[in-house]
Amino acid sequence: MSCSECSNRKYQLIFIRSQKQKQIKSFEKRWNIPMRQSASLENFEIHRTVGRGAFGRVLYVLEKRRKVDYAMKVMRKEKIVRTGQIKRVILEKRILLAVVHPFLVNLRFVFKTNSNLFLVMPFIKGGEIYGYMRTFNMFSENQTRFYSGQIILALQYLHEMGILYRDLKPENILMECDGYIKITDFGFAKRLENKDKITMSFVGTPEYMAPEMLIRAKRLSGYSFSVDWWMLGVFIYESASGGLPFYGSSLLNLFNNIVKAEYTIPTHFSVAITDLIKNLFQVDVRSRIGSRKNGVEELKTHVWFENLNWQALLEKKLPTEFVPNCTNSDATSNFAYFEEEPFEESQTEEFVNEFKDF
């Protein structure tokens, strides 16, 4: 490498570090000034349910004054309190408010009524990538790489902000009308303000769980950001094959297969994607790509990603093989239909102290 190349590389690294510090500073500012009531239910025209979650549902709504589409997450206070998830819901709100990234959904409005909590986010018209995965059975390796690259950039940002996502799966990945994606649903996310800190919580979708989440009790240890890279491996495998790598006749059987990393590589997988999957499905966290010495940079320079322009991807300048149909007069046409439920509201405010920070 010439002296000129060394100098350019040095300034590039300085610039990258500077940009990262700006991102962290901006994140911390939003993190430490949580959004209070910024709207009310009367500001929105409710259309229909487009999703369901553990504590409530997601509605497609129209902001009355500006006629802007939004997704409104509605969570019932009583159910949150009964299941002991108060801290988790308040944390989800703080994370959604603080994150700013091209491939992450964030928060636009927040408010509460006597019986419910509301998080209002941009409405992503393309729908869940899960639906397209079922329609096409599988994506090409090139398209899988396109989606996976965006996920890696989003997780890299989250990890730099100290956020562990923990629920990566096709149902939580939405597709924009330009064919790019946004990760949503931070209900299982957690912030580890000390990067060396671990957590012990048993959360997530069983088929996507990492081994260290399942064996933590036996070893009296916890887990950290490494679980997100294992889940990335499951996503890549499922996207490029149309099936899950780990399954079983029971949860116990499924978990045993995960802990042993017992899976079969499809015959149509290239040598490069096979090697990447092998490096992501390492039971020993220290051997898992993304969690080794060079962190996410080693993952981004893996041979399977060698022709991917990461900066162009971040700036959404790369072409995509598929663009969803967003021209239908029904803005919710790319979402499944759910049975509607009326809002249940108490005459007096419920759980005032429990949700004073929401």
In short, what is this structure?
With 358 residues, the chain is α+β, with helices and mostly antiparallel strands. The protein is built from twelve helices and nine strands.
Characterization of this structure:
It is a single chain. With 358 residues, the protein is of the alpha+beta class. It has two domains: 33-125 and 327-358, Phosphorylase Kinase, domain 1 (2-Layer Sandwich); 129-314, Transferase(Phosphotransferase), domain 1 (Orthogonal Bundle). 37% of the residues lie in helices and 13% in strands. The protein contains twelve helices and nine strands. The chain has a five-stranded antiparallel beta sheet with strand order 1-2-3-5-4. Strands 6-9 form a two-stranded antiparallel ribbon. A hairpin with a 4-residue loop joins β2 and β3 (68-76).
